[in-house]
């Protein structure tokens, strides 16, 4: 009888974590992860990884509606983080200039893309001769492949997982906007969902796409993945 009497209380507690409406509740540790904008055409022909390559100037103009949509979608106030690479910083600036308004950009080293070591700058068509393992169907290298002097996606997932846990504690119950890279977003999903890096690479993460993660007391929740602003 006691167990039956206590049941409604248990259900009410569980329902506190349900996400049934379009409005996101305040006071939750929430990460707004944005992949940087499209890089310039020549850079897209090679393995640029953690290299510092510029954004495509034409896309900065053509995709202004997407920047405006992001500016309207993102929360205020929020802590803005970027990777050490200029393409994330320029993307963040473009969103702020599109209507969000100025906000301090904090460089977070662990938000950087996978370091491809001595393979960085290598044209994609030359890569197969250097691989020790089969490439991933949706990534240039397999999750366990470690380029010389670089890091594997397994390493990236570990790095990003530690970062998310640290930031979740530092910015508890606050919003964090992080402009980062496709590999990092996939690594964040791997951490939140407790899945292998090889599985996480199956997620599509397009340029300017938004992924929202929440850290609740019961664990991580994925709110949205690869949400394209204004589409």
UniProtKB/TrEMBL annotation:
Molecular functions per Gene Ontology: phosphatase activity
Pfam families for the chain: His_Phos_1 (PF00300)
Gene3D superfamilies, per the entry: Phosphoglycerate mutase-like
GO cellular component: cytoplasm
Residues making up the signal peptide according to the UniProt record: none
Membrane-traversing stretches: none
CDD domains for this protein: HP_PGM_like (cd07067)
Taxonomic superkingdom: Bacteria
InterPro entries with a match to the protein in the record: His_Pase_superF_clade-1, His_PPase_superfam, PGM_Phosphatase
Name listed for the protein in its UniProt record: Phosphoglycerate mutase
Organism: Acetobacter ascendens
């Amino acid at each position: 009888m006691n167990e039956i009497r206590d049941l409604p209380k248990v259900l009410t507690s569980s329902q506190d974590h349900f996400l049934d409406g379009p409005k996101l509740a305040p006071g939750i540790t929430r990460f707004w992860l944005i992949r940087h904008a499209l890089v310039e055409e020549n850079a897209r022909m090679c393995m640029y990884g953690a290299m510092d390559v510029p954004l495509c100037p034409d896309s900065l103009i053509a995709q202004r509606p997407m920047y405006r949509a992001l500016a309207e979608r993102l929360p205020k106030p929020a802590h803005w983080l970027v990777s050490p690479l200029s393409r994330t910083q320029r993307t963040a600036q473009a969103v702020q200039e599109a209507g969000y308004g100025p906000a301090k950009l904090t460089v977070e080293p662990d938000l950087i893309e996978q370091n491809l070591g001595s393979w960085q700058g290598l044209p994609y068509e030359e890569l197969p001769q250097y691989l020790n393992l089969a490439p991933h169907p949706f990534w240039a290298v397999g999750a366990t492949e470690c380029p010389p002097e670089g890091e594997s996606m397994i390493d990236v997932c570990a790095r990003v997982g530690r970062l998310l846990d640290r930031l979740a504690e530092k910015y508890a119950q606050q919003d964090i906007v992080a402009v980062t890279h496709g590999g990092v977003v996939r690594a964040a999903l791997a951490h939140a969902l407790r899945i292998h890096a090889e599985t996480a690479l199956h997620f599509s993460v397009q340029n300017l796409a938004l992924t929202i993660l929440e850290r609740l007391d019961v664990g991580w929740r994925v709110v949205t993945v690869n949400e394209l602003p204004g589409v």
